[in-house]
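Protocol step 4 of 5: obtain the predicted structure for the target chain.
Materials: sequence only (see below). No template structures provided, no constraints applied. The aim of this step is simply to have a reference model before the mutagenesis design in step 5. Sequence pasted as it appears in the construct record:
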Amino acid sequence: CTSLAEEPSEDEASTCPSESDKPKSKRGKATNQVVLKGQNITCYGENFKEFLEAEKEAPILLVTELHLKGAGIRKSRQHAEAHQWRAFMAPATSTGGGARQAAGGGGGFVKNHVQLAQHTLGGSPERGQLPGTGNDWTVIALRMRKATILVAVAYFTCGVGARGVNVVKFNQLRRYLLLDGRPFLLFADWNM
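Step 4 output (structure tokens):
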């Protein structure tokens, strides 16, 4: 209903479910629900770091345009882990230099208490090493009560449309999801 760092507008507030609207168990906790928030964050900067440190409602955050690769991903993962999040990030595409040396990228941030499932194609989710990570996309396997759902996050290059590098990214992700075979949710910055 809202962006990751903002309060809902008056229009959004009227359509967003309130705490009292959520089904409750005998202990008063919400049941059969998982809250996911997603947004294009433009970069993993100070505003997003502050939000990540303060987030209490959603145990799963899906973001695009991290603009990170290599050491930037390692440093951001360490920051997330220091605040009880597991970070799964796809490296951004190199742009060849300048102040912004990478564009795109995507990732998911999952609170430590959320149960992750083993990927059927191998990998170690506990260490943030996913076989389901490609060029600007990543997949997280979330274990729900009796099922596992794959949550994919992808960034498609702006200005290219449905051709070139975007077709390659889409086909890599499509192949991974089809080979795995489990139900999935795809959050993407489509740029098409």
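Step 4 remarks: The two ends are 23 Å apart (CA to CA). The longest strand covers residues 148-155.
Proceed to step 5.
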